[in-house]
UniProtKB/TrEMBL annotation:
Matching InterPro entries: Methyltransf_Zn-bd_dom_put (IPR013630), Methyltransf_Zn-bd_dom_put_sf (IPR038576), MeTrfase_14 (IPR013691), SAM-dependent_MTases_sf (IPR029063)
Ranges of residues in domain C-methyltransferase: 244-401
Protein name, as recorded: NDP-hexose 3-C-methyltransferase
Coiled-coil intervals, chain numbering: none
Boundaries of every Methyltransferase putative zinc binding domain copy: 5-64
Amino acid sequence: MPPICQICDGAVEEFLDLGRQPLSDAFLTEQDLAGEFFYRLAVGVCRSCTMVQLVEQVPRDLMFHEDYPYYSSGSSVMREHFETTARALLARCADEPDPFVVEIGSNDGVLLKTVKAAGVRHLGFEPSGKVAAAAAEHGVRVLTDFFDAESAAAVQHNDGPADVIFAANTICHIPYMRSILEGVDRLLAADGIFVFEDPYFGDIVAKTSFDQIYDEHFFFFTARSVQAMVAGFGLELVDVERLPVHGGEVRYTIARAGARPPSDAVGALIEAERAQGLADLVTLRRFAADTARVRADLQALLRRLREEGQQVVGYGATAKSATVTNFCGIDSDLVSFVCDTTPAKQGRLTPGTHIPVRPAEAFADPYPPYALLFAWNHADEIMAKEQGFRESGGRWIQYVPEVHVS
């Protein structure tokens, strides 16, 4: 019996199996190895509403918890992105007498700090305790809880309706989408907007960026599937915007049905998705074949470099690197260690493959001949920062959209 769609209860047809995978952000000590959690990472498409989604769910409390190690403020590019986004959201509710902005998955408050500085009422939902505490230290009002129908109703009762509900790289994480949209329906003002941005499935297919698929990313959105997803809750997709961040995202703007006319961009993107064949099994199986080709090419390159006695170091202990290392069988025999700036990851081992994670300073002590760039979505920022590596003769290994050395 095929899996059931978490949006519409339709049949989900599997098209990609990335094998046995660990929790992508569970960086381990030696003592943690015996109890490491694994699951099968597979992706399917709903034959009714076209939503692309994982076949298996990982319990949310295993992924988003007190020690969750991702901080949005860690990248200067993302800090600038969220400051710009916050100003745009504030402009869209500037005519309200007492605007109220709510963020789902507010992380360390990188966006809401700008909202607070503008003197606007705000609230962030952030279930991961330490990053929520980081936001609170900056004076951001944050609720350490998951957003759902019940918690949204409580906020509406206490604070009134929200003029803007925003989420970045969060909505795609949440399998219980019906409760999320019920919460949006309860909390959103009559003329308010729900805006969220997440990795775009069209870019994932076009770039063969299969590492965007991991436990925390449950849904992979298109304009067509988002349109179908919100329609059952009295909501309507009224605008879309392509974004360059995180390897390609789309910002979706949702309003109450009939409250705002949809922009021409919505129809244009849906038509482009039809042309790309994003809901067609032929396209999806070709994507799976391309993913297998990248794995074979990356394995061959790393094994050749090992045989030649060349050291390869990983750059960026990202969540998505767990997919690559485990799917491709990359362990410390092929990549000696991974450098990362996040203190919570340093001195630990990568999920599943147990490669040591070292501080960023280890990258230049001394520079290795090759670096495997796991944080490829920040390539421009990283390469500008690491010019000394290039000057030392070092070469970058990348695998999106294909394996190449530069």
